[in-house]
Structure formats: structure tokens, C-alpha cells
From TrEMBL:
It comes from Anncaliia algerae PRA339. The lineage of its organism: Eukaryota, Fungi, Fungi incertae sedis, Microsporidia, Tubulinosematoidea. GO terms for biological process: post-chaperonin tubulin folding pathway; tubulin complex assembly. GO terms for molecular function: beta-tubulin binding. SUPFAM superfamilies: Tubulin chaperone cofactor A. This is Uncharacterized protein.
Amino acid sequence: MKNSNNINDSALKRLIKDKEYYEKECKKIKEDLDLTTNDEYRMRFLKESLLENTKALTEVLKEIEFIEMGKKVRPDLDYDL
């Protein structure tokens, strides 16, 4: 099932890129939040953006864990999401 492993690897690469993107976004938002002090609307917007990006990052991490766990248990199956 070599084709299945290639699909799993490409899915994992995509998820890792997504993970890196959300980590960078969270870091940028946190930095912006630290710099924003007087604008309550901006702070609320940044907090909501941070929450959304954190949720997305959590989902990506769950998907990565699922694929990696599946590859250990049944390396012959396709775990592409």
C-alpha cells in the first residue's frame, strides 16, 4: 500500500503547514494585543481572532495526531482527512 503512505504523507505535510500558519497568526495577534491598550474594540477583535486561530490550531493538531497514531497502528490504511 505504498500509495496510501504517499497520501498520508501529503496530508501530514499539508497539516504541518497549516499548523505553522496558525502558530504564526497566534503569535502576531498576541503581539498586536500587547501593543493595543486604549482601543477596547480593537482589543475585543484581537481576542476573538486569537480564539478562532487557537481553535483552528487545536483542530489541526488533533488531525496530525490522528494520522500519526493511525500510521503506527495500521500503516497499510489511508488516514487522509
